Amino acid sequence: MSSSRLIGVGVGPGDPELVTVKGVNALRAADVVVVPVMAGSDGKDGGEPGRAEATVLHYVPEEKVVRVVFALNERTDRARREAAWDAAGERVAELLRGHSTVAFATIGDPNVYSTFTYLAQTIGESLPGTVVETVPGITAMQDLAARSGAVLTEGTEPLTLVPVTAGATVLKEALSGPGTVVAYKFGRQAREVAEALRETGRIEDAVWGSALGLAEESIQSAAGLGDAPLPYLSTLIAPARRDGGRGGKL
Question: Angle at CA 25, nearest 5°, toward 133 and 31?
Fold first, then answer.
């Protein structure tokens, strides 16, 4: 039975200054740091550094980083996606057999729509003695709220987080509710998102952002959304309707 540790470390949405002290310590203390990379058309390492890798390299030397291919962009071919997950899991299992601590760096938080979830499940089945831990990270919605001035919640307001990869209908249902709605990964469906915001009367106060904390950062009012697709990892905040004055939702 393995006694190695697999630690999922949230490294935030891209700004290296938003990695927590605990996260940096975990990355530096690990024997190796795994970063997920997108597969190319041949199923192998596409070569482009991902956002997690770029962030990690601010804190650990390159020789300590191991790139592992995940089917991050495979949504239609389930068999291909499962095979890629199995191969990635075996690569990480191999690292765990040779090292006492392996960190896996993931953008945002490892428990919020993260590839780490699937990796941890795979490792739990292949190396059942492995200790799995997570270090929380700052999410894109927190960063966008801070940079745009949008308030996520007040008083008794609910907060709904929707991945638009689930479809614009799910987003529209959430927007019809009373609280703040956050949409992740909506860039390729920007037109449908704009339509949902207009139909529910939520577009005027909504804001979206991409590449937060990076040189190509863009933060704009949702009122300007058009038909052009945006970066895949774009984030949207549609604040709750607030018409009761200060503390109106307490």
Answer: 70
Q: At what angle do helices 115-126 and 78-98 cross, to 10 degrees?
A: 60
Contact 114, 163 (CB under 8 A): no
The sheet carrying 32-38 orders its strands as 65-70, 32-38, 101-106, 5-10, 131-135
Q: Are 55 and 12 in contact (CB under 8 A)?
A: yes
Comparing C-alpha atoms, which of 140, 187, 184 is closest to residue 163?
Answer: 184
Contacts of 185 (CB under 8 A, 6+ apart): 163, 164, 165, 232, 233, 234
Beta-carbon contacts of 193 under 8 Å, excluding residues fewer than 6 positions away, are 164, 168, 171, 183, 186, 222, 225, 236
Highest mean pLDDT among 132-136, 214-218, 222-226 belongs to: 132-136
- pLDDT digits 0-9 by tens, 22-78: 999 999 999 999 999 876 544 455 556 789 999 999 999 999 999 998 865 555 667
Is residue 249 within 8 Å of 155, Cβ to Cβ?
A: yes
Q: Can you tell me the distance from the alpha carbon of 168 to that of 189, in angstroms, rounded to the nearest whole number?
A: 8
User: pTM score, two decimals?
Assistant: 0.90
Could you give the CA distance from residue 120 to residue 117 in angstroms, rounded to a whole number?
5
% of the chain beyond a pLDDT of 70: 90
Report CA-CA distances (Å) from 176 to 169, 195, 205, 226: 11, 13, 15, 21
Paired strand residues for 209:
219, 235
